[in-house]
């Protein structure tokens, strides 16, 4: 294969690239799309989760066929406080993501096991020398130069565990910080899958990006023991080190991923500054591209640069929140900011997750027992 032509070439068949391909195929089936992924499968090895209220109706329609598991509500548990929040919570596995993309797209539109070595606004060169000429290219190969940002990290290791007997967990537990608060900013996430099967993930926020798999594994075993569960087997492990952006100049980061080339996903800086999550952003970006008529390299660059730059600017409040939580407080107290956040009005919490806080919300978060001191909000 050499000298391939297409309307849109998407480099990176991970979360963001895959969703763009799916949405673009649905909305403009007559145009030729190529999704180029270095790994043998699309989506890597992930269990991606999101809260229903993070996304709008159109994004939900895009994500719905990919969902493996859903819960009617989720809970948070802190040493002094626990609560159920009335928002559905969903998870999708990357094997379903791969399957759904292959069902939706013509076989010749997906190139897996093919690494891009050269990317420009309207062309791609693959490792085997194949040249692809595209009306426009989107680079979704994961992070650009993260060293240009002021970062903290959210690190986690999770396993799907089969237990010796049934557990009694019914809701998705987004945060369980009830045990060992003195050990630092860490908590567990728990997702019940079957009566004797659940996914447990050990999460911690730290200033350095290394991950200690053994330590995370031991904490998961201890967590199960706390509930009196005996683990029969474990499967589908995943580990992640997500960037938490405390600051940085957007344009330097954008350009570090390739000057003049349209970008999506982590490469575009589109992730939640407090959680590092990017699924809702990836779905929004996918619909933005799929709805655009002009897929030329220059038009896509402008569309996605302006979208990402606007999002970056609007998220300054969240970077301040993360800065105060992770640097302004002693390490073992950071999670208390989350504890007081989760005592607020449920709809306000949903707007926090979905990055839709208004001025009144921000004031509410800074008054009384709210999590964000006024000084930190104003950046003093
Ligand atoms: C284990 C894990 C779990 C996560 N869970 C959640 C979650 O629950 N909710 C949430 O919102 N966020 C979650 N995140 C954060 C974020 O959503 C993911 O990191 C997401 O996958 C980022 O999407 P992306 O498209 O930018 O990058 P990726 O999904 O990493 O996709 C980049 C793709 O580009 C490919 N690639 C790289 N170089 C080349 C090349 N030269 N040529 C061709 N292909 C190339 C890679 O193989 C990869 O498939 C999680 C992250 C991890 C690591």
UniProtKB/TrEMBL annotation:
InterPro entries, alphabetized: CrtY, FAD/NAD-bd_sf
Family matches, as NCBIfam families: lycopene_cycl
Organism ancestry: Bacteria, Pseudomonadati, Pseudomonadota, Alphaproteobacteria, Sphingomonadales
Listed name of the protein: Lycopene cyclase
GO biological process: carotenoid biosynthetic process
GO molecular function per UniProt: lycopene beta cyclase activity
């Amino acid at each position: 294969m050499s000298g391939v032509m297409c309307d849109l070439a998407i480099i990176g068949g991970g979360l963001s690239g895959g969703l763009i391909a799916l949405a673009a195929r649905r909305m403009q089936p007559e145009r030729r799309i190529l999704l180029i992924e270095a790994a043998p499968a699309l989506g890597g090895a992930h269990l991606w989760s999101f809260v229903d209220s993070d996304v709008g109706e159109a994004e939900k329609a895009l994500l719905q066929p990919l969902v493996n598991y859903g819960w009617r509500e989720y809970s948070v548990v802190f040493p002094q406080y626990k609560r159920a929040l009335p928002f559905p919570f969903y998870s999708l596995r990357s094997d379903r993501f791969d399957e759904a993309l292959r069902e939706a797209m013509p076989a010749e539109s997906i190139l897996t096991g093919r690494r891009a070595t050269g990317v420009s606004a309207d062309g791609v060169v693959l490792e085997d020398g194949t040249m692809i000429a595209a009306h426009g290219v989107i680079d979704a190969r994961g992070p650009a130069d993260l060293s240009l940002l002021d970062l903290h990290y959210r690190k986690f290791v999770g396993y799907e565990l089969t237990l010796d007997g049934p557990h009694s967990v019914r809701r998705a537990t987004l945060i369980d910080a009830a045990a060992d608060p003195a050990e630092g900013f860490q908590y567990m996430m728990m997702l019940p899958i079957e009566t004797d099967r659940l996914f447990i993930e050990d999460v911690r926020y730290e200033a350095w990006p290394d991950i200690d798999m053994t330590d995370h594994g031991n904490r998961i075993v201890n967590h199960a023991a706390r509930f009196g569960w005996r683990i029969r087997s474990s499967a589908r492990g995943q580990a992640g080190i997500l960037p938490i952006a405390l600051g940085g100049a957007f344009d330097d980061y954008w350009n570090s991923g390739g000057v003049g080339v349209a970008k999506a996903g982590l490469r575009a800086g589109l992730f939640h500054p407090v959680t590092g999550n990017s699924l809702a952003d990836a779905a929004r970006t996918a619909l933005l591209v799929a709805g655009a008529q002009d897929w030329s390299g220059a038009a896509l660059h402008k569309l996605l640069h302006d979208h990402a730059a606007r999002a970056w600017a609007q998220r300054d409040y969240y970077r301040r929140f993360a800065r105060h939580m992770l640097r302004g407080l002693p390490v073992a107290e950071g999670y208390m900011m989350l504890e007081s956040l989760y005592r607020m009005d449920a709809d306000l919490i949903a707007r926090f997750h979905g990055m839709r806080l208004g001025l009144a919300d921000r004031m509410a978060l800074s008054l009384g027992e709210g999590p964000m001191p006024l000084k930190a909000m104003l950046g003093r």
